[in-house]
Amino acid sequence: MGEYSEVIRKGAEEILKQNLFSDTLASIALEDIGACQHVVRTILGRDDIEIISVKGQYRLLNLTSKDTILDAYAQDSTGRKINIEIQRRDTVDHARRIRYYGSMIDKSILDKGAYYDELPDVYIIYISETDLLGVGEAVYPVTKTLGKSGIPYDDGNYVVFANAAIDDGSDTAKLMKYFETADPDDMSQGPLSERIHYLKCEKGGNDEMCKAAEDLYNKGREQGIEQGQSEKAKAMAISMHSDGVTVDLIAKYANVSVDLVRKWLGLTIA
Length: 270
Description:
By secondary structure, the protein is an alpha/beta fold. Helix content is 49%, strand content 17%.
């Protein structure tokens, strides 16, 4: 037990050293409604947005393809869904990553049999240290228009990029500079500053960081167990198939989809 507690304590200390470009600290900080609302209002330039709920490190499950973990997933008073993503790496295809995240959010929202016009607006706010697309602005939305007409194409899916590389004196640029420091003594960012000060300097906040470190530790163990179970199921599927068992029956025994079994076996997915 003592060794476990020491691991958790050291984990919490490491999180406390991070800035807000760490998705771990950002997720914990933005679970606070006031802090999340401040970030959303600043980047979107809208003071009328009222966040009513937010979850950090929110996992969207997909049995047949890649799961998605959202850094912060919020809803406002009008029903809009807002995903805040923190991105440090420059090596991924950001446009397609955002496309996949948007599709997973839509899939999680729309119930079977529902109409497409029931889909709420979804905002993805993509925050990075560098100007990923080289636009030269601290914040820029992705706009969609119909040909040369300039007529907006509105599908209810909105993407906004923000970065710390461009200091244009805007409120977003100031916010991004704060993301770089996460200085608990800098109270310039209202509710977000209050949240960071609480997490880094007050006992209740330190306790919360220890709880977050413990959750991360336990999630890592669970994911390791799940990975092991998945490998066992795959090995079982291959063995059963070699004995002549049908794909449908293997899927039933393994409690997975037929397409996943086909993928394990290297067969064409119908």
